[in-house]
Specification:
two-stranded parallel ribbon; 12% strand; alpha+beta
Length: 99
């Protein structure tokens, strides 16, 4: 819940500073792991027009293409990083899990 709270407070403070601001929540499912890459491609295909700046906070939001994007990475996909070597990943074994 921390990242969601941070997003709401950031949005409120931007509005208080005189900016227009909205929080965009991207629907994302972690299971089954075989669907993650297609969901990442969906996020990569987002076209945010009439938006001056994007502030991405969590995976996979940092994949959004925008010429004025700021990344505050709060949550990466841990199953692909530190949990992979610990044997606590949900990624399939073999090449399909390494892509």
């Amino acid at each position: 819940m921390g990242a969601e709270e941070l997003a709401v407070h950031l949005q409120r403070n931007l509005v208080a500073a005189g900016h227009q601001s909205e929080v965009l929540r991207i629907p994302f499912r972690w299971e089954p792991a075989a669907c993650i890459s297609s969901q990442m491609l969906m996020v990569r295909a987002f076209e945010l027009q009439n938006v001056d700046r994007v502030i991405a906070l969590k995976f996979p939001a940092y994949l959004i293409r925008h010429p004025h994007k700021t990344l505050w990475l709060l949550h990466q996909y841990r199953q692909a990083y530190d949990l992979l070597e610990a044997g606590q990943t949900n990624l399939p074994p073999g090449i399909s899990g390494l892509r």
